[in-house]
Write a structure and sequence with these properties.
binds zinc ion; 7-stranded mixed beta sheet; single chain; 14 strands
Length: 260
């Protein structure tokens, strides 16, 4: 593991969707920046994949949600409930959970079902709503912008102290905001849910993701969030119609180093 304070180590925890798969867990990405552990989305299976990436839920200091669809958010409740498990490694430092507009209401809804099972001791849980905002946190900056999927959907850009940058699209249709947010980024992690021939509204295909990457002039593109239809076609070739730069097809537990 890199101990560099300013590099970003990305681990794809889940490259899949809502469809149960032994190869592709539901959506989630882990980023390590110095001592920080940032989780992006937590679909079903995330906590097990985290352990496979040598990380426990107690190591996380931030969780960022792209939107509230269950394949991205369903393990929020188990994550908080597991945090209450009274063993020696119980959480000592605060966990910040951030998402787009409506997150406070979403969480209140969960509380009407789960009550104090998803409450932590005072000071340990910080809930934040983000939208079109830029926040400077310890060792990194996080920016967000609305994308074309759900009303609460946002994409994220993380920039470390040396300027290394990673953008996470979440789910989206073609998005000018995503192009703007991803301008010149070292890495764009972009959804590519279905093949070009099976495009659906609210999602991207490989050639659409490629066009976004080209227009944003990113330095590397990794495609993820693959429905089973994607296993039947050459995703890389479809993306090559619109993008010529470095390209990766995500697999669960794939690790990518960004920056020094
Ligand atoms: Zn979605
Ligand atoms: Zn999704």
């Amino acid at each position: 593991m890199s101990s560099d304070k300013s590099s970003i180590t990305v681990t794809i925890l889940g490259s899949g969707t809502c469809v149960p798969s032994l190869q592709r867990s539901s959506c989630s990405v882990l980023m390590r920046i110095g001592a920080n552990r940032l989780l992006f989305d937590s679909g079903p299976g995330t906590m097990r994949r985290l352990l496979e990436a040598d990380t426990t839920i107690f190591d996380l200091n931030y969780v960022f949600y792209s939107h509230f669809h269950p394949d991205h958010s369903a393990e929020l409740v188990p994550l908080i409930f597991s945090t209450k498990y009274p063993d020696g490694s119980r959480r000592q430092s605060p966990l910040t959970i951030a998402a787009g507009r409506g997150f406070a209401a979403f969480f209140e809804g969960l509380k009407t079902v789960y009550g104090k099972w998803i409450e932590l001791a005072p000071g340990l849980l910080d809930l934040v709503e983000l939208n079109n905002t830029s926040k400077v946190l310890k060792d990194f900056t996080i920016e967000s912008a609305p994308v074309e999927h759900n009303p609460e959907s946002i994409a994220y850009r993380i920039t470390s102290s040396d300027g290394s940058s990673v953008v996470y699209s979440g789910d989206t249709d073609f998005s000018d905001n995503l192009i703007e947010l991803a301008k010149g980024a070292d890495l764009l992690i972009c959804e590519s849910a279905l093949p070009d021939s099976k495009r659906v509204k609210g999602h991207l295909t490989p050639s659409m993701a490629g066009e976004i990457a080209t227009r944003a002039a990113v330095h590397k593109l990794v495609l993820t969030h693959f429905y089973p239809d994607c296993e039947e076609v050459d995703i890389m070739q479809e993306c090559r119609k619109t993008y010529r730069g470095p390209l990766l097809i995500a697999e669960d537990l794939m690790r990518i180093e960004v920056g020094s």
